[in-house]
Write a structure and sequence with these properties.
It contains five helices and ten strands. The chain is of the alpha/beta class and 193 residues long. It has one domain: Dihydrofolate Reductase, subunit A. The strands form two sheets. The protein has an eight-stranded mixed β-sheet with strand order 5-4-3-6-1-7-10-9, with helices on both faces. A two-stranded antiparallel ribbon has the order 2-8. α1 packs parallel to α3 and α2 crosses α3. The longest helix is centred in the N-terminal third of the chain and has 14 residues. It is globular.
Length: 193
């Protein structure tokens, strides 16, 4: 069974965005893009909440076609166009992309169905509202966190409404020159699943 991994930039005090969804505090550089690109290029499924999906859909399909497209824009645009996109939404009914599945109900059953085939991890990109729903159903198997050297003080937390403690095992860490530290965790109770 594939694992569902939350992939997110986070502040030192645990926020994924400012109070109004601000993400201008997130630091990235080519080293991070290359590091992330290696891992996601192996995968064929990405999961988004509606808001994050609509942000991605408005940029990535044509990012590689822009005259000033960076290496990251080209590579991620190509990956985005071929990856199977799963969107959690109660309001979105369709997408113009043929390789997109929209889940609006029976979340536990449908996510477990998507996790069934063997293969690479399914990454949940950002999407705090969707992530909170997945956490409540204990569907998140791990966390791939990019901790930014900033304390926001308030905002949208990654961890909210946790019903019981989740013990995590640290699999790897990496520091980047921009000050970001990657922490890659797996839930201990789900290591062998």
């Amino acid at each position: 069974m594939r694992k569902l991994i939350s992939f997110v930039h986070i502040s030192l005090d645990g926020f994924v965005a400012g109070p109004n969804g601000e993400m201008d505090w997130i630091q990235v550089n080519q080293d991070i893009f290359d590091h992330v690109g290696k891992r996601i290029s192996k995968g064929n499924t990405a999961l988004y909440g509606r808001t994050t999906f609509q942000m991605m859909e408005s940029y990535w399909p044509t990012a590689a076609d822009q005259p000033n497209a960076s290496k990251h824009d080209i590579e991620h645009s190509q990956w985005y166009s071929k990856v199977h996109k799963v969107v959690l939404s109660k309001t979105l009914s369709e997408s113009k992309w043929s390789n997109t599945t929209i889940i609006s109900d029976h979340l536990f059953e449908k996510i477990n169905e998507i996790k069934q085939p063997e293969g690479e991890d399914i990454l949940v990109f950002g999407s705090p509202t969707a992530t909170h729903s997945l956490m409540q159903l204990q569907l998140i198997d791990g966390y791939w966190l990019f901790v930014n050297p900033v304390v926001l003080g308030k905002g949208i937390p990654l961890f909210a409404n946790i019903q019981e403690p989740v013990k995590l095992k640290l699999l790897s860490t990496q520091q980047f020159t921009c000050g970001v530290t990657e922490l890659n965790y797996i839930a201990e109770s789900r290591q062998s699943k």
